[in-house]
Amino acid sequence: MTKSEVLVRLRSLHEGSYTRKILDRLGDRALDKLAEFISSDSNFEIKKFFDAQKELQEFEKIELQLRQMAEDRTSADLNGQQIDGFSAYMVSKVLDTLNLSQKKALLSRPTNEIVAIAYKLASRTEFSDG
């Protein structure tokens, strides 16, 4: 893949994605250097990179939906299951304490497990009597 093709693909990342935000913050020079590196490294697997970005975007979408539900204190459907506003709030508070890989591990689970884990983690920290 040529440098210009890589640049087109990088610029086509979803505007709200974590990677796109970082690239926008770094600016055009960093984007140009990254494209140069990707196109010059024969071992770099561009398909895996963009597949990972697509997967990350799905997790970000779930997180944004949970945060919106928490902010509005409304219940809604998440991955085919109904979740109430308080549970969404609890999950969003737990997500605030997790790093990216932990968020990914949590948000890849079924909705009922996400909520159960969030309640368990929250009961150990924010809502404990200690």
Across the major sheet, the strand order is 1-2
**H/E topology pattern:** HHHHEEHHH
Radius of gyration: 18 Å
- Total helical elements: 7
End-to-end separation: 57 Å
Q: What's the main sheet like?
A: 2 strands, antiparallel
Description:
- A two-stranded antiparallel sheet has the order 1-2.
- The chain is mostly helical.
- The protein has two domains: 1-44, no CATH class; 57-130, no CATH class.
- The model has no long low-confidence stretch (mean pLDDT 84).
- The longest helix is centred in the middle third of the chain and has 27 residues, at 46-72.
- Helices cover 71% and strands 5% of the residues.
- The chain has helices at residues 3-11, 18-26, 28-40, 46-72, 85-96, 100-107, 111-124; strands at residues 76-78, 81-83.
Describe the structure concisely for a colleague:
By secondary structure, the chain is mostly helical.
Based on the model shown, name its key terms.
single chain; 130 residues; mainly alpha; two-stranded antiparallel ribbon; 7 helices; 2 strands
Question: What's the arrangement of secondary structure elements?
Answer:
Blueprint: H1 3-11, H2 18-26, H3 28-40, H4 46-72, E1 76-78, E2 81-83, H5 85-96, H6 100-107, H7 111-124
Antiparallel strand pairs: 1-2
